[in-house]
Amino acid sequence: MKRTILGILACTSIAGAVALSAQVSSPAPAPAPAQVSAPAPTQVSAPALTADEVVNKYVDAVGGKDAISKVKTMSMEGTMQVMGSEGPTKTTTVDGVGTRQESEFNGTKIISCFTDKSGWSVNPMAGAADPTPMPDDQYNSGKAGIYVGGLLYDYAAKGSTIELASKDDKAYTIKLTTKEKVKYTFAIDAKTYLVNSMTTETQMGGQPVTLTASYSDYRKTETGFMVPYGISLDFGQFQLSITVKKIELNKAIDPAIFAMPKA
């Protein structure tokens, strides 16, 4: 699940556009040839932002392309709280190569791993004590996590499309569709341009569920890249939260950790 979450920092979709028109008042009529009233001051509303402009502002808000491009690997450690239980969790990512998340509860380790080609997992709690290849739908909904910058960053190069769905005083609603037709909806704060939440359809226990991830406590790393230290996941019937404790950037990571081991 954490894998889904970290791929979320970077997830972002955009649908629809809001148009604003400029309004200019006309001069008042002259009461007499010798007296002409001055034109009323021009009133112009702020121009509407396009989907790309919103995403560009988001990229700038999290540090900009330069700061993101400097991050080649990321290691995040923290705690995951689920239904009153708490355990350590760690996510290791090599940009564009793979990401691996390990969580432990009551001595049981759960592993989810995604690469640019496939995914696998180990989940004794679900009856899969041995490494098991992921179904395509699960892989497609989580593989964006292999990119440090997330779904919105360089979205077109990844084959995704965006549209601006709506905008109000609090947030822009952005919808993103990947080339595999996986859909994500992002709420981007109208003032900070950071992602407040992301919603998508995923699989849990073989059943479709709606996942909403909320982000908070954004902090700047040494490259200038902003990362949320607070992540909450809502699956409808239950919720979990993750508190990031430690982040290391650009440490040496052996890509072999992403290879699925034999049973």
Task: Characterise the protein shown here.
It is a single chain. The protein is mainly beta and 263 residues long. The chain has a single domain, classed as outer membrane lipoprotein receptor (LolB), chain A, CATH 2.50.20. 12% of the residues lie in helices and 43% in strands. The chain contains four helices and 13 strands. The protein has a 13-stranded antiparallel beta sheet, with helices on one face. Strand 1 and strand 2 form a beta hairpin. The longest helix has 11 residues, at 51-61. The two termini are 22 Å apart. Residues 1-34 and 41-45 have low confidence and may be disordered.
Entry keywords:
263 residues; mainly beta; outer membrane lipoprotein receptor (LolB), chain A; 13-stranded antiparallel sheet; 4 helices; 12% helix; 43% strand; disordered N terminus
**What would the CATH topology be?**
outer membrane lipoprotein receptor (LolB), chain A
Radius of gyration: 23 Å
CATH class: Mainly Beta
Q: Care to count the β-strands? A: 13
Instruction: Please name the fourth-level CATH homologous superfamily.
Output: Lipoprotein localisation LolA/LolB/LppX
- H/E element sequence: HHHEEEEEEHEEEEEEE
Main sheet characteristics: 13 strands, antiparallel
The average pLDDT is 83
- Placed side by side, the strands forming the largest sheet appear as 6-5-4-3-2-1-13-12-11-10-9-8-7
Structure described in brief:
The protein is mainly beta and 263 residues long. It has helices spanning 2-9, 51-61, 64-69, 136-142; strands at residues 73-82, 85-94, 98-105, 108-115, 119-123, 128-133, 161-167, 171-177, 183-189, 195-204, 207-220, 226-234, 239-249. A 13-stranded antiparallel sheet has the order 6-5-4-3-2-1-13-12-11-10-9-8-7, covered by helices on one side.
